[in-house]
Inverse folding.
């Protein structure tokens, strides 16, 4: 302890004695020079700052301090001190070239050029020094003429000066004369191995020549000499990254970010390093930070997109990859990533463009496999046209590859293209051992009914692979199709001996038992297969189908709980709930996956079915709208939505729905026909005629075309031409609606008897058709001799539809005219109870009450009818006058009668009669 105290005291005494000495500017500058010679940088800076504190206008101190900062690579600080030294009149011969270099470090190229006049007064060595920097500034300003002039001047002044060579090296590099530039730099470094500008240029030349090890070495030497340089750390990190020295590169990036957390280039380095480490979350984070700072290098966007892809962030992946793939070869992995991302987002229409030209003859099988997987996905989404485009594209791959042909064939068969069989045959020829192709060909032949072809393959298979079950299974499938169940059972037993408990054989055994309605055997086989494959979705479906009860449902619930993310198990369970009448449970289980993307068609079908069974029309509309939005390539929601809107007579909404569908399926005949039907129903004549031009050239039934033309003629009121077209249409497609079209055309063409005959014949063939019966009854009303028939038809209808307002109202009038007041009053009251705010219904009820003798009640309801009709219906008004008279109100009756405006001769006759009575 005493020793420490003594030493401390000595130190304090020395310090106090030193403070007592008078320090001058000169002494500080001299101390600084001593420190500089001893390479004690910090001490020299302190001494010079002390000198400046004593004399802020000391040009020498400013120059020396600026020179030190420049040697450290601190451009801004060097500029500050050297500019002040220049303003203070420093005559140091090195000031102009050093200030020029300081400007270069701060990218102030115009300021470098501005020193050119002052540089002309310098000695040749210092002038050539300056001219090297002027050359680089001129090149950075794209002033090539000035750069060449600077090099020429430098060479004329001192051809062998290292700065003249440096100036020429800058020029040679700008002209892509890399070897010449490298040679000049090597010569400079041979003169002075620590010449920092030459080391920087050496690193840049090495980078251009892709010699990243040399670049890293040069930059490391530069950094050692200029430790405060910010840019050199970035360049060094980049060269280390390109040299695949990721750990070292990351070290410099981390050092930069520790000082400047937003430095984009450092984030770029980190993104690249983390991507190589497969740390895609960090890679994405740093890439996004760099891009946010407008560091928009293509390879950074590529890494950002690829990182997002591996993180399954499809939106970000698509955003970044879309901007870079156009600059990449078509077989680059990024194109696959973009296609998959677009697929996941449902951007189906973009996929064929992304993969356009995606062919690599060096690896046809791999590319065919990728194109096939995308095509399969497109088919699942219902985007058949887009899938076909990829199939056509994959045909350009090497056709001598068996796997390519096999996948091509399977895809074509899935799209109902029979030429797929030819592709499968080619695949088998190229590689007879390609099992997948041979089996696919066999089952395709079986599906198309070519039993001989299927048997030939099955027999060949049995001969080639006697130890495998495939041949027996295939022969069994043929036997099942031909309903040779005993033979099928024998073959399946043979299959199970070769490969015990193989799934195909067990499921086919269960299939046979069910096709033969053998319930006991079905249950036995279902019980066995579920023990062998308790989690297999297909087996679970077969098991439930065999039992269809709560006990079987429990098996499905147990499998679902083990894998609740499996969409197939979710839809299977929901389907089972529905089949047992458990709508709420089905809805609940479907809700667990409602937010997943690319939900299968079966999910949406079940959602719509639940709404239908619950008779919730609004929910059904919502479900269909969501379905179409989620997957615009499915036709089903388009057709169902259009039908629902059409039933509501909301034809505009129905047409909009079909238009959305046609955007994805321009050539789909079903949608075109639906569109035509809606246009006709909505009386949109011009649009219907345009649509017919499209359909007229299609290969569709001529009678169907006649029906369209006939309806167009109806809208045009061209009944003469409409009749024969609609007759042809009705003969081919006899249904209620088409009967009405033709009957309407007959009536409008003054052929009423034909209309009656047509509807009577139709009703004879379809006696339960209420619509036709009601229409006929309405037509019979116009003829006194036929009113009994009308009463008979209305009476039949009211038995089936007791709450039909129109039928009850018309039947009441007929009974009243016939004198059957009791029946007339009964049906009039029923109609009024159902629709009290309909003027004609209230009027009928009033008339029935009058005829029944209840004049007061008749006046009440007749007055109500008058108010509802607002006095605009002459018949209602005349009935009201009659009831007013019956109730002893002649003045009021006369007042109302004067306001009645008659339109028919019968109304005029009745008005005159009532006037006479008054």
């Amino acid at each position: 302890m005493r020793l420490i105290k003594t030493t401390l005291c000595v130190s304090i005494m020395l310090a106090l004695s030193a403070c007592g000495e008078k320090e001058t500017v000169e002494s500080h500058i001299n101390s600084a020079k001593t420190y500089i010679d001893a390479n004690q940088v910090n001490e020299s800076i302190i001494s010079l700052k002390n000198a400046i504190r004593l004399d802020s206008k000391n040009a020498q101190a400013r120059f020396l301090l600026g020179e030190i900062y420049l040697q450290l690579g601190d451009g801004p600080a060097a500029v500050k001190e050297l500019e002040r030294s220049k303003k203070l009149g420093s005559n140091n011969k090195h000031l102009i070239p050093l200030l020029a270099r300081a400007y270069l470090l701060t990218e102030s190229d115009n300021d470098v050029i501005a020193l050119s006049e002052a540089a002309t007064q310098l000695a040749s060595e210092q002038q050539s020094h300056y001219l090297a920097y002027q050359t680089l500034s001129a090149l950075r300003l794209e002033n090539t003429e000035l750069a060449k002039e600077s090099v020429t001047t430098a060479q004329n002044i001192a051809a062998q000066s290292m700065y003249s060579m440096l100036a020429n090296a800058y020029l040679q590099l700008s002209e892509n004369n890399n070897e010449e530039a490298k040679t000049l730099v090597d010569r400079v470094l041979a003169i002075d191995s620590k010449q920092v500008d030459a080391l920087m240029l050496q690193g840049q030349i090495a980078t251009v020549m892709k010699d990243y090890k040399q670049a890293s070495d040069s930059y490391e030497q530069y950094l050692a000499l200029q430790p405060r340089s910010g840019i050199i750390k970035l360049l060094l990190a980049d060269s280390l990254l390109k040299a695949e020295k990721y750990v070292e590169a990351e070290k410099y990036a981390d050092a930069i970010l520790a000082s400047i957390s937003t430095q984009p280039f450092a984030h770029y380095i980190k993104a690249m390093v983390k991507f190589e480490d497969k740390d895609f979350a960090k890679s994405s984070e740093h890439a996004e930070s760099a891009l946010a700072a407008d560091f928009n290098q293509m390879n950074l966007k590529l890494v950002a997109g690829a990182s997002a892809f591996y993180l399954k962030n499809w939106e970000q992946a698509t955003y970044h990859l879309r901007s870079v793939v156009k600059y990449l070869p078509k077989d680059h992995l990024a194109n696959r990533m973009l296609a998959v991302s677009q697929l996941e987002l449902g951007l189906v229409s973009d996929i064929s463009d992304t993969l356009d030209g995606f062919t690599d003859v060096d690896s046809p099988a791999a590319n065919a496999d990728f194109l096939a997987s995308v095509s399969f996905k497109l088919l699942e989404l219902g985007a058949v046209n887009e899938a076909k485009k990829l199939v056509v594209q994959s045909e350009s791959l090497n056709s001598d590859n068996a796997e390519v042909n096999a996948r091509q064939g399977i895809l074509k068969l899935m799209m109902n293209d029979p030429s797929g069989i030819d592709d499968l045959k080619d695949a088998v020829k190229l590689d007879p051992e390609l099992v997948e192709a041979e089996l696919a060909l066999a089952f395709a032949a079986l599906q198309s009914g070519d039993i001989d072809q299927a048997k030939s393959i099955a027999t060949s298979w049995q001969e080639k692979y006697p130890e495998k079950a495939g041949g027996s299974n295939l022969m069994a499938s043929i036997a099942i199709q031909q309903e040779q169940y005993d033979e099928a059972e024998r073959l399946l037993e043979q299959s199970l001996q070769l490969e015990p408990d193989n799934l195909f054989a067990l499921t086919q055994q269960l299939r046979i038992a069910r096709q033969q309605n053998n319930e006991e055997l079905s249950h036995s086989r279902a019980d066995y297969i579920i023990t062998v494959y308790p989690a297999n979705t297909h087996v679970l479906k077969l098991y439930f189908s065999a039992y269809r009860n709560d006990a079987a449902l429990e098996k499905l619930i147990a499998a679902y709980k083990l894998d609740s993310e499996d969409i197939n198990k979710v839809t299977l369970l929901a389907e089972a709930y529905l089949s047992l009448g458990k709508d709420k449970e089905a809805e609940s289980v479907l809700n667990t996956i409602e937010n997943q993307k690319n939900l299968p068609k079966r999910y949406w079908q079940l959602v719509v079915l639940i709404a239908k069974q619950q008779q919730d029309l609004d929910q059904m509309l919502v479900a269909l709208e969501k379905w179409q939005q989620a997957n615009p390539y499915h036709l089903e929601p388009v057709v169902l939505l259009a039908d629902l809107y059409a039933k509501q007579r909301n034809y505009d909404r129905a047409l909009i729905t079909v238009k959305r569908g046609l955007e994805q399926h321009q050539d789909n005949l079903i949608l075109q026909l639906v569109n035509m039907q809606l246009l006709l129903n909505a009386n949109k004549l011009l649009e219907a005629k345009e649509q017919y031009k499209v359909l007229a050239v299609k290969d569709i039934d001529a009678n169907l075309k006649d029906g369209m033309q006939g309806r167009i003629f109806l809208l045009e009121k061209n009944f003469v031409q409409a009749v024969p077209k609609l007759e042809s249409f009705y003969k081919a497609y006899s249904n209620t609606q088409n009967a009405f079209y033709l009957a309407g055309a007959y009536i409008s063409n003054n052929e009423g008897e034909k209309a009656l005959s047509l509807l009577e014949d139709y009703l004879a063939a379809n006696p339960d058709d209420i619509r036709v019966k009601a229409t006929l009854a309405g037509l019979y009303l116009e003829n006194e001799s036929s009113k009994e028939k009308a009463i008979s038809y209305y009476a039949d209808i009211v038995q089936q539809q007791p709450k039909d307002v129109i039928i009850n109202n018309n039947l009441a009038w007929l009974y009243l005219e016939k004198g059957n007041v009791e029946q007339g009053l009964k049906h009039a009251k029923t109609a009024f109870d159902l629709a009290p705010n309909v003027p004609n219904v209230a009027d009928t009820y009033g008339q029935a009450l009058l005829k029944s003798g209840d004049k007061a009640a008749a006046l009440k309801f007749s007055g109500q009818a008058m108010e509802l009709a607002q006095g605009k219906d002459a018949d209602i008004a005349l009935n009201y006058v009659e009831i007013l008279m019956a109730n002893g109100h002649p003045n009021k009756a006369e007042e109302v009668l004067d306001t009645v405006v008659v339109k028919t001769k019968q109304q005029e006759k009745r008005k005159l009669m009532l006037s006479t009575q008054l």
In short: Confidence is low (pLDDT under 50) at residues 1-21. The CA atoms of residues 158 and 830 lie 120 Å apart. The first helix runs from residue 2 to 20.
